[in-house]
Amino acid sequence: MTDAVTTREAFLHPALFYRGPQQYVAGTVPFLLAGLAAGEPVAVAAPPDRLALIRDGLGAHADEVCFVDMTQAGRNPGWIIPGVLRRFADAHGDGRVRIIGEPIWPGRTTVEYPACVQHEALINAAFTGREVTILCPYDAAGLDSGVLDDAWATHPVVIDEYGETPSPAYSPEAVAARYNEPLAVPPPGAAEFVFDSSGQLSRAREFAVRHGARMGLSVPQLEDLALAVAELTTNSVLHGAGGGTLRIWAEGGQVVCEVHDAGRLIDPLAGRRPQAPSRPGGRGLLLVNHVADLVRVHTGDPGTTIRFYLAV
Q: pTM here?
């Protein structure tokens, strides 16, 4: 394995293909040590078992690294850019920052995966021009070959045990568009509320909370549900042709809620930019990404559907 950062570009976003713990350590620990030697702030966001490998490999240097459990902080891929990567990079704004971010691991579900790929594609737009290096490890032995194909398309360079290879398939915009796929049709038993004015927003929120309570959400989760529904329905009234449709149902140990309206979401980074405290508004989808366990979005000519999940 190699340290990988061999260009002078401002933003660097290589993928690391590893097979087994030994290759994982060989590809990550020297990368972090090189950052520390250069005086760069360094962070690792990965599943707990990977964090343990890196801690052991760093030895006494582990105390100089910020460790983040990605299965918690990044359980919703839509929150990783603002809540993990940008949070660390923005806190160290002077000079280059070095981060390991592992958003995809064996065990991510087929429902989560499209959001993970869109996240990887959108990192490139989110950090263009920033002095940041983000290394994304992929378990080449444990992940499907299609996942690795997507990694080639979302990273300009791929690193493996043989060295660095510029990706001939690199096309993050095309990948983000490809995974802007229609969402599965809600089940027949989904509860539905149609709203067409700001005067109905409180009723929409009460409707969602009533059904969420019946489906087993805790009081704090009901507060999150109410907040997310309030933000999305307000956006629909203001920007989605004046109204929309709210649906909620239970599925696989989760409460699923969606808002559909006739508007089109044109900013691919909506909900992924940290919002300056001094700037009013613009926090709707960002707040939804913060409170939800997963957010899926589909937008196009027929309108926009934003679906979020809360684990019971």
A: 0.94
